[in-house]
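Section 3.1: Structural characterization of target chains.
Under the original work plan, the team committed to producing a structural model for every single-chain target entering the pipeline before any wet-lab resources were allocated. The record below documents one such target. The sequence was received from the expression subgroup and is listed exactly as submitted; it comprises 356 residues.
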Amino acid sequence: MLTVRVADKGYVEEYVWHLWNNKDINSGSNIVSLKLGVACSNGLFTGQTTYQGQEAVTEKWISVKSNGAGGSGIVDDANASFKAVGGALDDVDNYLSLGDMPADTYRQIYVRVEVPAGAESDGFTYPVLVLEYTLEDPSVSSSSISTSSSSSSYSESEPDDDFTGTDDDNPWGPRWEITDAAPKIISNRLQMDVGSGNVLEEIRSKWLTEGQFDVVVYYYIDANTDIDWWRIDLKAEPQDASNDYWTASRLYNTAYYAGGVHSFDQYDNSEVTLYAKVYATNALEGRLRLKRDIGGTAIRAYYWNGVSYTEMIPDTPISSSAGMKFILRAEVGGSNPSLDMSFDRFNHIKGTWAWS
């Protein structure tokens, strides 16, 4: 909690703190997808008193930056300038994104408090710094997943799926429906091989999630022909009357994205692109991620840059409060296209779900 003497109009003060993940313990979860922001003293963002910090939150009196880091495997954010923060963490303007933190590492956080000359509050006010993050188990990697034909260790009562199974099996029926062609389990991954005679393979979750969600899937490109276009999608499909849906994608398009990109796209139900935000890449394996924060409506998309998740921030923020189902798909187009790829480790990190 920060104690701010509001009576001192024009007051400026700076602090430097170390933010640790498991100090002096070199094993444990990685902290990923960190958001650093400011809330009122009770953790809420709106409707509170000036004494609880409401004016400081709304007017963003507090600015932060991350510059300096220590420990093995951490990459310094190296922020050159402060960012004013405050308000709900479903709006990118309200928080500072921090890079991933392995166990026994820290980030050096600079905090600046500036009380404007025209502040309405008087006496003292007590805003707090808040941190939202996800824990990720560093011991689980593609090389550590069993390649035997034993049944999946993922619970059948949950939406997570590591696609463990006997070669040529369908994905687990109670969890997924096959909505196009015939993707199969091969070497404990969900294999999708698409080409001129089979241009689309797709599965859709039989469960849906409402409110907060955070889903991640790994992808692997085994072979591809860069002719015309191909794409790999993690798609959120709203379960309401709206016509829009959203995809985090890895794609190639000769006409537009030669060399390949990660993208965050919004479509209408006739697959007309309403917008596309693209980031160049030649990665043959990676991760795609979609999320919606608790209490929020903003849809966010990320790709894995090899070290941490990079948010693909649209020019115009998008939102939906609808329940969502999720689709995994691979598609090609044009003359003589081909793409052999697989999905693995589909994880619903946060949120609740219901079986439909």
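The chain has a mean pLDDT of 82.
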